[in-house]
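Researcher: For the record, we're logging two predictions in this thread. I'll number them. Prediction 1 follows.
Model: Prediction 1, sequence and structure:
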Amino acid sequence: MSLSTRHLLGIKDLTVDDISLILTTAEQFKEVLQRPVKKVPSLRDVTIVNLFYENSTRTRFSFELAEKRLSADTINFAVSGSSAAKGETLLDTVRNILSMKVDMVVMRHSASGAPHFLAKHIPAAIINAGDGVNEHPTQGLLDAFSMKEKLGKLEGLKVALIGDIMHSRVAMSNIYLLNKMGAKVTVCGPPTLIPKYIRESFGVEVNYDIKETLEWCDVANVLRIQLERQNQVLFSSLREYNIAYGVKRKLLDNLNKEIVVMHPGPINRGVELDSDVADSKQSIILQQVENGVAVRMAVLYLLSGRNPANN
């Protein structure tokens, strides 16, 4: 089997078979990561550039580690120390990098659609590591992998996305993926942080009551309040947001069941998620980080052309 696309620009472009193949391949790579020797020669002599125009910790380190575990040659591009800081265009930057015989580009950019633009103009495989408020496909994939690993399935699972839905590319990738795989999705947060069109356009339910949402769901994927993307005041204060929509220990203890708690990071502790929830046994946040390496190994491998099924 092979992927139906030569790039990973978004979950929106993947088929159900594509998603299943990535998750199955990630399971195999996670087994590799449990071995004493965690490195495999799968991408030896493949050169990958990590092109990050936005700050990142988990995603960048996860991709770098995945590339090293696959024995790829890696170049890390820092915008602040490059010609991009002098006004060089994105396309010129990438063309210069490709002239050095780069095979794949992992890209994060503040502009929605930037990876799609590159995919139309250069021959290398493009992997979207987050573009604006559009998508973050590998985060959506690792979230799904973590849910399936913990609960054994995706189909029929009740998943709540809680928080800043309007500005979250993680939310969009989760919605696309979970809908494709047969899960049920509800979004929850202040009305000012939930797009008015989301129910009709994306087939999800909307609930503005955090208690009702937590009673309904099997998994609560709590999203960060993205103040850096908000160009106007959308709620009164962080303290009042925590009172109204923060996921707290008392809220979870009053449920009639135990739910799984997730967060893509970085966590604003005491805002969208309290520390005694983030660090509790219900939380699989650290497992998400661990699974991110296996999922990104799978994506890199399947898009590299080294998969025997592609030859």
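Researcher: Logged. Prediction 2.
Model: Prediction 2, sequence and structure:
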Amino acid sequence: MYAVVGATGNTGRAVVKELKALGENPVCVVRNADKAKEVLGAETKTAIAELDDRAGLEKALAGVKRVFIVTGHNPKSDVQQINVIDAAKAAGAEYVVKVSGGRDVIGPDVESVNGQAHYKIEEHLKKTGLQWCILSPGLFMQNIMGQAANIKNDGKIIQPWPKDLPVALIDVRDTGALGARVLREPGKHNGKLYTFSGVSTTFGEFAKVIGETIGKPITYVEITLEQAEAGMKSRNMPDWLVAHLVSIARAGGKGAFSKENTGPIRDIVGRAPITTKQFAQDFKGAFG
């Protein structure tokens, strides 16, 4: 039996949808069963547990042999995901697939608290005796949805990323497609770390593609990290999240997300990654 922890997030939803398409019916470990059924379908199997509740997690994961873990950014993500891993092992699970971050922003001493957390979780997972596989996707195309209002109302994308910097963006649906297949074949993927992305582009080109799709020109406005930080703080975003987003943009400016690697999607999923053109078409309603 399979379980997806973090099933209602963008990547979690993609994994669940892909598993169902492959004939599986995973248990979705969630905090809110009503929300889960709303976004994942009424027939979805759910188990309720908080990520901080070890006993609740063990109960939710009882009988599960393979666990997919993807949780949103938060200051306690290391504690929470380690809790999930330990609960899964105690409940009898044998194999864990974890979604991590880009390799250049993960480590014990990186600027981002989330990058430090991913490192701690990965190291812990490797020492559990469980079978495991780690996925390290590139920068998500879906992040541009945070610019949807600017695109719709002002015809602009405003970001602290150089317009012509190569960025190998990936759609979360590709991560879901890869994750579902990796989860189903532990023998083939045990002990593997897959770094992957979509085809390299630039944010200037992405803006042009979105503009062509919705039928109006989109201006790409590059701002400084200081301007971005001030803007996020003015919107009362928590300090840890502001610091994380600034650190990702700073690392990105140095090429952390520029390297293209479509191999795992092509080899394991068996198709090319989703293009920015396809993404823009699929989410046209949010921009137009």
